[in-house]
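User:
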Amino acid sequence: MWIVSLALRRPYTFVVASILVLILGALSAVRMPKDIFPEIDIPVITQIWTYGGLSAQDMERQITTFAEFAINNNVNDIRSIESQTVAGLATIRISFPPGTNVDGAMAQVTAVSQTILRRMPPGTNPPLIIRYNAAAVPILQIALSSDTLSEAALEDYGRVGFRQRMGGIAGMTLPLPTGGKLRQIMVDLDPDLMRAHGVSAEEVAAAINAQNFTLPAGSTRIGETELAVQLNSSPDSVAAINDLPVRSDAGRTIFIRDVAHVRDGFAVQTQVARQDGARAALLTVLKRGGASTLEIVDQVLGRLPTLRSTAPPGMLIEPLADQSRFV
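Assistant: Predicted structure:
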């Protein structure tokens, strides 16, 4: 009964308190991140090693096993280590007890990875180290399709153009597109011409590597003008690679075009995405941490009109699987 008596004696105080509760409740409802599940902090770190062309057995024997051994002996408070190895790819999942300082653990895993990189087979790429978050779930999918553009053009725009224009949205992760064809400069060797000229594949690869690199040359001063110096150390077109020399024998120079053909092509396609039965490139928008699904989707959809106006002619950009509707 005391609270009723207090309210009767101090009516204005309770009116003001009620108004404050109403205002603060409305602000909390507007600012609160809206999602299906609450933020879940699981102390798990994933280390991903890649080496294109290496078999699963060699990946496991030369990369996965040694990386697990190094991590287990140099990283503190490890609860378990799991790994999965396929051709050209090794994924190591490191779990820690609840309450572990994940930032410190990531620093240790990164330091170990950089230390053992020299021990790995020559040409091994530095590993990708990411923190697993159960709240990082797909919230929106965007399909890039076209009746006139190639799959390589779709993948190239999704990888570079689209992801650059979507930068700056807080709490969003935009992985590489699924489907499409990854653009690559292909050197198609001709075995018969190589035998006729006595040239091996290693010589062709060495010639291209030796004559296709960026080398800073500084600057030079001519009178009162200072000019930047550029060396002709990298071909400026795909056709120019055909004119690179491989070697000279008895005054005769063998060029790349004599034993191979260089073209603007694409890597072997391992993933296919389709929209309405046609080939497409699929981009998946992920949410990070405690960000609001509704805010991220609203910002992404708000940028689509600008993206459509600046996209290559003939490209269709359509949103799919919008999770914000369910939220």
